[in-house]
Every structure is written in C-alpha cells, then in structure tokens.
Amino acid sequence: MSTPTPAAAPARRSPLLDLPGAVAAEGPDAGVAWHYGDPVAEQRALVRGEAVVDLSHRGVVRLTGPDRLSWLHSTTSQALAGLPAGTSTESLVLSPTGRVEHDLHLLDDGDATWITVEPGEREPLVAWLLKMRFALRVEVEDVTAEWAVLGEPSREPAAAAGPVWVDPWPGPVPANEGGAADTASYAAVPTPLHPGAERPWREVLVPRGELAARVAGRRPAGTWASEALRVEAWRPRLGLETDERSIPHELDWLRTAVHLHKGCYRGQETVAKVHNLGRPPRRLVLLHLDGSTHDLPAHGDDVVLADGPERAVGRVTTAARHHELGPVALAVLKRSVPVDAPLLAVAGSAAGDAPRPLAAAQEVVVAP
User: Fold this and answer.
1) Phi-psi sector, 65: left (phi>0), alpha (psi -120 to 50), beta
2) With contact defined as beta carbons under 8 Å apart, do 170 and 197 qualify?
3) Where are the beta strands (DSSP E) in the chain?
4) CA 18, CA 166: separation in Å to the nearest integer?
5) pLDDT tens digit sequence for 123-137
6) Which of 289, 323, 270 is nearest to 44 (CA)?
7) Cβ atoms < 10 Å from Cβ of 137
8) Which of 21, 78, 131, 255 is most buried, with most CB under 10 Å away?
9) How far, in Å, CA of 331 to CA of 231, rounded?
10) pLDDT interval class at 5 (50, 70, 90)
C-alpha cells in the first residue's frame, strides 16, 4: 500500500519524523509523517478532536502593503476587497481558459495576508505574484523557512500565537441581497447533509523553530489519517484531484473558492460560461472499493466500466483506508458515465504494472 505519488519537489525533513513510530510519507507529502504506527487510532483521535497533523511541508507566503487585498481581488477567483481582518477564505488562481493553477488558503490579519499552498507550489506562486504586481503597493515574501503549518480538527479561529486559517469547506453557499447565491454548489446533496460539514479543520501557523515544542505532549497523526478524512469529506486537493484540464465546477470548488458576482479576473469567462450555460465535462465521485484484498489504486490509475470495454472513463485521484468506510477513493469521471454504473478501479495502470481491477461502487459527489 502506498500514498499517492504525483511528481513532488524535494521537501525539507520535518523534525517530527523523529517521534516514536514515525513512518515518512512519499509523493506530495514527502518530508512529513505518513503515520506514527497506528493510522486507524490516529484517524479516530482526529475525529474526536484530540490529535494534530504535521503539515510543515506546505508553503507559506505573506503579502504586505495597502493594495494587497484589492490586487488579489482583481487577479484571483474570490471576492477579497475589504476582507475583514481575521476572516479565512479560499481563492483559486486560474489560467486564461479557467483551468485551476493554484489553490490559496488565505487569511488577512489586518496587517498582512497569509497564504498557505501545497508542497512545491510556493515558488511558482511567488513568481506569478511578482510578475502580476506591476506598480502596486504590495510586497511578496516567501516565509516558508520561518513559518510551519500544523493541521488541527477545529473550526475555532483563536490560537495562542500565529495566524490561523479555518477551512470554509463545505460552505454554506450564501445568498446575496437579491436572493442569488454568490457561490454555487454542484453537489448531489444539500449543504447541511454534505459530509464535509462533519470535518472541522484549520491550519495553524507556528514559528518553524517552535514546531516540535508546539506538538510536545499532544497526539500526533499522520497524513494517512488526515487524507482519509479529507476523502470522506469530498474535499478536493490541488495536484491530486486536479490535472491540467481541471475547472472548479467538476470538483464542486465554486462553493468555497469562487465568487460569482465580482469583477473580472483571469479565467472568469470559463467559470461564468460553464455555470450559466452548461455542466462541467467531468465530475468528482467517491468510490467504495473492494476490501477483500490489501490492494489500493494509486493516483492516476484508470477507472473503467465493469461491464463495458476496457477503456478509461475516469481516473483515481486519492485513495485511502478509512477507519469506518474501509478502502475508498476520490475519482474524476466523465460526466456521461451513468451514476449507477458498476465500475472497476484498475490498480497498477498508471505505473504500467500488471492491472489489478478492484470493484468500485460510486457515490455521486458532483451531480451529472
């Protein structure tokens, strides 16, 4: 069994890998612990709110200057002009054709805007921000060497020290004064029934030199546990659920990361066109996998129809072993795949290994 393994930049090694039982993660989570010897117990501790996850491999970027929020408002997908101090939100950097390029976990504290990003994303994001700055009063700093991220199962914004980003997933999807929602849900269930509502999550920024001290005396949990709970919550992750063709609609990302009634920004035409005139060409699903073996599909493995030609109708994005659901995976399928079609996740197909088909029952996430 292995973690998802899309290409990842070399990562610094976390000091928390020296904790008893720590097993290092691979792929995009390299540099932090996959688990500390008992991933099932770690998941359960997270559900109870009693554990902390080392996310110190995430990048941290800080923006200062009076134009920072209006500038981000004009260049990214979220309404950020006048964002109240202490408010957590999420915004996407899209390509001119509306494809997802960066996911920003964003908090403004009144003096600076703090952004955390996926491992390997900070350098390209900083380069893009500097290129787009022009003559505006904004300073862009990569502060990853000074600040580290811890993940905690909480929605409370308060912390002893350091910024705290509270995950807004899965919403709610609010309505504006005219009764029209500023965001949108593509999910097959209403927001109150969304499994993400049962997953409180926040990212706490701590001085990197204090990382080990901040975790001392607490139950550590690895990325095996946090990723399994993310999959259960249908929460998309850049670089796993996305590829070069991904648009926000097919991952239900409009609900927390896109504002539908703000001014122009790069990629807005695609967002508006798909939302107003059609449906996304692909859709996110949760797969319940055959648990009779110890096999799991990997990131990028094919999904095929169980009773059709052996032609891929989608791909696995994240697979995990959940402490209650068993083996599960997020996958992106063609929108035309029937919601009741029996599927197979073909383990080994992305790596060119001998195919190992696993029966997969789909749970609809994004409605077709």
Assistant:
1) left
2) yes
3) 23-24, 33-35, 51-54, 59-64, 88-94, 100-108, 113-117, 139-142, 147-152, 164-166, 202-207, 219-221, 282-289, 302-305, 312-322, 326-334, 343-347, 356-364
4) 28
5) 999 999 999 998 899
6) 323
7) 12
8) 255
9) 10
10) very low
